Amino acid sequence: MHNFYSHCRERFRNDDIFILHPATKKEFLYSDLDCESGKIAHHLTQLGLTKGDRVILQVEKSPQNLFWYFACLRAGLIYLPLNTGYKEKEVEYFVNDAKPALVLCDPDKHALFMSILDKTDINCQVHSLDKQGVYSHNKDILSSDGEFADIECDRDDIAVILYTSGTTGKPKGAMITHGNLISNSKVLAQTWQWQQQDVLLHSLPIFHVHGLFVAVNLAVLNSSKMIFLDKFDLEKIIYFLPQASVYMGVPTHYVRLLNHPEFSQSSCKNIRLFTSGSAPLLPQTFSEFQQRTSHTIVERYGMTETGMNTSNPIEGPRKAGTVGLPLSGIKTMIVNDAGELVDKNIPGELLVKGDNVFRGYWQTPEKAAEEFTDDGFFKTGDIASIDSNGYISIIGRDKDMIITGGLNVYPKELESVIDEIPEVLESAVIGLPHSDFGESVTAVVVKKFANNNLQEQDIIQHMKNLVADFKVAKRVVFVDQLPRNTMGKVQKALLRKQFS
What sign does the CA torsion over 466, 470, 474, 480 have? Predict the structure, then answer.
């Protein structure tokens, strides 16, 4: 059986705590996870959904959200989580591309999804789940049978679609298989020496790889307890850290912890493992954390399309500024523009290959073909180097993606939004260093007419109306023209240098 949930359930200890949810002061056992996800899976089949149908969720983080995730996997459905910050224009694209059979959204967004679907011929139902975990059709769930026979799935059957944009700005749905989830979770559990008695303090969103596939999947694979916070809350992190043995964060979290006067060695007295990912961890933060707590953060590296690829070791040196060694079973290469292997400590594009690598992009096989070499290596688009001990350092991106607060922002998408403004001639979006978020979104704008009255706030408000808040520019600067090379390409490196 290659259904990821079935694979996890083999290890369940039903009386173990699955989730401690401080917001509601409720505890859920692994037997509750099995029963509740079974009821939802049964309900989904009664609604007429069949293997391979897509289920879009744009709901707040809650234990019930996870019940739906695992229910979809059990029923052989494709789970498609969306960032809760996405606005109408973004959501409309995802709906039209994925063609879901069911949308589960916050009650406040029910009308929005209905209006989007009214403009299509997609046969899709819209139900709601509020932030307290109350489902709009809860009576149907209560009448469902908790005993559900998980649908047989092959390793290559799609479990989840996660949307990731590219240089064109048009989001692509990365198809993550049951085999990908099983492979990556097992390798990470082994690499990080995960124990059943570990307690994970979970404060990440669960609509992307880090919070869902790394954090949740690892805990469930090992029947471990999660202290499940609805969001990153610094005071609650400080309070619950002594009760946990594992904490997974993004660099912004560690910067904020270090700035809290009550964060100390005693806060971390029971922590076995701190990991950092989703964005580069500054060596300064790595060292300050080590000095303050006597703990050494394990930095690792992954992508939407691949899950985790590398990690600093549990036993062995954890090198600041590196993302460690390739995980077991994952092959890596660093090549130059001609596709030739480069020497140690020489930058090149990082390529990866393994059972963790996704199946391709939803409905765009030609796009996936462009991203793979003839011998099956995935082109990450990240510029990296490898030292004499095999440690990999990510030193840049050949794509202009911005990582702010651990979330990916793709400039082309935002440039298209800004260029819609009648008074704008053209724009370039760049990321600039930021002490808290790692990078901040900055828009460099050329006005169509030099004397028009377009202001920074006009552009920011326009963006707020159309895209999620984390994508909105924190700063807008106006220039007479954008710097270009001889081929006419905007030289964003010069802009970053000029405005840093």
Answer: negative
Whole-model pTM over 0.90: no
Cβ neighbourhood burial of 141 (10 Å; 0-12, 13-18, 19+) = middle
pLDDT at position 165 is 62
Closest of 4, 135, 115, 122 to residue 57, by C-alpha: 135
| Number of other residues whose CB lies within 10 A of the CB of residue 318 | 18
Encoded tokens for 376: 């099956």
Closest CA to 182 of 206, 204, 209, 213: 213
What are the extents of the domains in the chain? 402-499
pLDDT per residue over 173-199, tens digit each?
Answer: 999 999 999 999 999 999 999 999 999
Sequence-ordered list of residues with C-beta below 8 angstroms from that of 163, at least 6 positions apart, any chain: 80, 82, 94, 171, 172, 173, 174
CATH class, domain 402-499, is alpha beta
Show the tokens assigned to 192: 């990080």
Residues 160-194: b if buried by 16+ CB within 10 A, e if exposed: bbbbbbbeeeebbbbbbbbbbbbbbbbbbbebbeb
Per-residue pLDDT at 486 exceeds 70: no
The first and second tokens of residue 39, run together, are 């009821």
